[in-house]
Write a structure and sequence with these properties.
- With about 270 residues, this protein is mostly helical.
- The chain has 2 domains: about 120 residues, Helicase, Ruva Protein, domain 3; about 130 residues, Lysozyme, CATH 1.10.530.10.
- It has 14 helices and 2 strands; from the N terminus they run H-H-H-H-H-H-H-H-E-H-H-E-H-H-H-H.
- It has a two-stranded antiparallel sheet with strand order 1-2.
- Helix 3 crosses helix 10 and helix 9 packs antiparallel against helix 10.
- The protein is globular.
Length: about 270
Amino acid sequence: MALTAKVKTFAAASAMLAVSAGSSIAAECGNNAGGFEAWKAAFADQAAANGIKGNALSALAKTTYATKTIYADRNQKSFKLSLDQFMAKRGGKAIASKGKTIKKQNAALFQSIEARYGVPAGPLIAIWGMETGFGGFMGNQHTLSAVATLAYDCRRSEYFTDQLYAALKLVQSGTLAPNAIGAAHGEIGQTQFLPVNVLKYGADGDGNGKIDMVRSKADALASTANFLRGHGWSAGGGYQPGQANFGALQGWNAASVYQQAIAIIGAEIDGN
């Protein structure tokens, strides 16, 4: 899920995670690596006071300042492209073509997801293809280090503090490996969920009693459908601009070109 959309979930995430206003700003932010270790020590005390313990605190202690994450955060340019440029850059035609085959090969899975959440295959496959090339590349950055760095960084410290608490809770529950690798802003798995959204919308799509956004395409796709339903998706409604479910796509990503790309690719896959 591209970062421009994710700020929309902040208010709900704050309430869900129940981090006190006073403690959430106890550790002092910074704009370079110089203060990261001192911040991390202060944050660890804060986290322990808010119920984080054991393996999660140990994982936090091993995080390092993620220079590549900061670079990526300061250089997000693809959403300034025109729709045609964006579709070409993301390989929209190739995603739609391959997506049709994937839909046929996984017909039972997509039918079960639509029956459960009301979301058809097209937009799910479009998101899956654009986010990670259908799970082909989910990132190469240490997830906890990325999120901790952004929580420390002054630009959006409060927002990513909630993401860091969520990531630590996922580690504590066994849902996220302490050494997990993901995208530059801490996005997780085949459809790139930030930690707060894994907590809120993560779903067990393969019925094994666990949520694995990385290794289970069923979990990743069911979670994505659950996210869209949580953002107003209504079964049977259209999802093109001006139709009932386009607002749910806007919930996925705030960039207009991204929303339109999902709608265009999804319609091609669904045969609409």
